[in-house]
Amino acid sequence: MLSDALLPDPGGSRAKGLRLELPSDRLLKFITVGLPLFLVSLAFAQEFSAGSQISCFSPTNFTGKQSAYVDMACWDSLVHHGLDTEGHAVTKSLWALKVFPYSLLVVAVLMYLPYLLWRYAATPALHSDLLFIIDELDKSYNRSVRLVQHMRKVQQASAEPERFWEEYERARQERYFEFPLLERYLTCKQRAHSLVFIYILRNLLLLVFLAATCLYLVFLHLNIFFQDEFNCSIKTGLLQAEPHIPPLIPCKLVFFSIFQLISLSVGGIYVLLIPVVIYNALQLCQWDKGLLSVYEMLPAFDLLSRKMLTCPVNDLNVILLFLRANISKLTSFSRLNAVSALREATTNKEDIDTVSNGRAPEMKPGVEAMGKASRDSLGSA
After folding, report:
1. Cα–Cα distance for residue pair 170/252, rounded to 1 Å
2. What confidence tier does 225 reach under pLDDT thresholds 50, 70, 90?
3. Which of 28, 49, 62, 289 could bridge to 58 as Cys pair (CB 3.0-4.6 Å)?
């Protein structure tokens, strides 16, 4: 049974399937970058298929070519001529409507920048950390199984039950069961802050870009997106002295409602995404102990939980989040989790015991050299 519990060597490389983005971050990237690109593509497709974006009401004596010229000139200038409350002539530029689809392209590029920051500044180091920790956790599980195999053989060959448990307790007190490489590596990551700094910076940049986009769309709605009609003047240049050309020509924006719908869609969804970004950043304010708590059934892993009493804003907490996202690569977790579930479901928890929690009732004493033998078995594993 113990031999069946040993993990086989991984057949392929673990590096191929590692997820270096959290599911929530991947969803944010897909929406924040993909939504404006999708809506802009629809706007451009409709513009190319329908033709002119503007319709001006030229005088009846204008020919078809003159009317087409009026539409083109007013779309190029896109300036509203009106009167203020005191009757003075004022002008108002509507150029923001003309560049609105292109501004959404800029928004998509800005939303992609935090992803590029994470990919090139943090992903290489995170990839190495995950590979090492996943490999060492599985090896620690195998070492523990081999340790139990050795203890079982010693127990079966021993004729002094009390002596076996005395040596077992002494081995625990002298910390023969520790795995110092993995433990020290995780402790070192608890004192590092490069990954957590980049992750917070990524979310902070994304939050700033989301807020700036929403403010930009609010500005457009308050100043421009309530004016689908405007008065255009074409009396410039050679046409300035022509008496048959009226001073102002009324025009209407054809796809004004579509621009309004696009801006409301982008702004509304971006506002809903702001709490998601804040939640992603706040995940680092508490420890994710659920994953490593399962490994406390192995020898000396209770030391890890005791060392997690410091500030959780460090690289180790970020690595734990990504270990959770790559739990399918951690083969030993499913087996230990099953044992943990059996322990919780069993009325008499002593029926299912591990080497970290004390004596198993079915195990009998061993030999005087149990401490040294345990240490040697760990080293050989």
Report:
1. 89
2. low
3. 62
